[in-house]
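Objective 1b: paired records.
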Amino acid sequence: MTDNLVQLRTCPRCGGVYSGHGAVSRTDNLTVICPDCGTRGALESIGVDETEQEKIFDTIHSAKFDC
């Protein structure tokens, strides 16, 4: 029998709690951050402004609950 344990982690960038796979920070290429901070870092690196980032996150988060 296997245990289905969910490991919770705290993101060092935003302080939020997440489960699942993290992302590697683009700042130092070592620190594991939450998926949202990883996505935000990628969007910032290509010049997406904060308003557009929020629209993207709204779409991402609403899609997670449609499955």
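Objective 1b, second protein:
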Amino acid sequence: MITIHPSVGRANIKIGPIRSFSLPSRFTCPGATKWCRENCYAARFEHIRPSCRLAYARNLMLTWNTRRFVRVMLKNIPNDLPVFRIHVSGDYYDRRYVAAWASIASKRPNTQFFAYTRSWIVPELRTALEALRALPNCHVFASVDPEMPDPPAGWRIAYLNIDPRANGVPCLHQQGKAASCYECRYCFRPGKGNVIFKVH
């Protein structure tokens, strides 16, 4: 049997020293709109960095065995890790995968998990995503673009600045007011609201 190890991101310019887990863009994005597919920053990055595209594909294969995925990720997320980003690229693609992250997060209560998803718009995934975001250490934003309807009540929303509905705090990193997500912390602090991103 071939052993697949996860590719866990350790840092990047935007999020700072925050570990992350990603999947291939587009193939794992059931909630993507035409606008999203045409403007996907992750797809552009994967085109420039084929090594990342390969790593994300291996990550996807790892998720197909839910039990093993949970076990392996728990080994890569220490009990004292303060914060973890789910999906710099990719999205929640089925219910079992969403449930796997709920299992991981519930076993790492000291870690704040945060993610932005368009999969909230997929009816078959909504219940699983509601259960994930109900965990006290999970901060799951409903990502929207101008082609999408309003998310269900109660969700934190990640708007684009081109959306006339946008209301919330502009991303401080994009405003040049915070060096990274790690320094800002707005998106993974309980009790905070919506965020507005510039198109990038």
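Residues 50-63 form the longest helix (14 residues). The CA atoms of residues 35 and 147 lie 7 Å apart.
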